[in-house]
Write the structure tokens for this entry.
Amino acid sequence: MAILEVLHFPDDRLRKKAVLVDKIDNDISEIAQNMLETMYAEGGIGLAATQVNIQKRIVVIDLSEEKNEPIILINPEITNKKGTETMREGCLSVPDYFDTVERAEEVEFNYQDLQGKTISSETGGLLAVCIQHEIDHLNGKLFIDYLSPLKRQRLKKKINKQEKLQHKIL
Ligand code: NI
């Protein structure tokens, strides 16, 4: 297993659209395991392959306190949405920034597991928000894209400032 490098906004590679996984083999399983290890190491609850510069439709999630309930979603897609909910979100690709995003409250979704079996499921709450956030990543979209232009502008300034500080330290 290996810990992968997580891309940070405004890296253009976060805007690439991931392609469908057509064959679920050992390579895909290894990518998923490495993604889980990376997510745990970085302290996240979800990670999409796009964030580690792999353009395949793979998502990993673990919402448990003990970090022992990994969920691996291959080719996840939302088939139905209900209601709206706002939640404060963060993202491993946008460090140290949190903001409120409106999303569907409940989702119905399909995915394949590592055995290639297609599973249909539905969920609400944090898992529903997380699935929507991660599928956005696979489509090159970030949660900060939902913010007002003013807020995005402020965030960009903050990130530029952080980069300058880091360059001074190094
Ligand atoms: Ni994210």
Notes: Strands lie at 46-48, 58-61, 71-91, 94-112, 118-124. The chain has three helices and five strands.
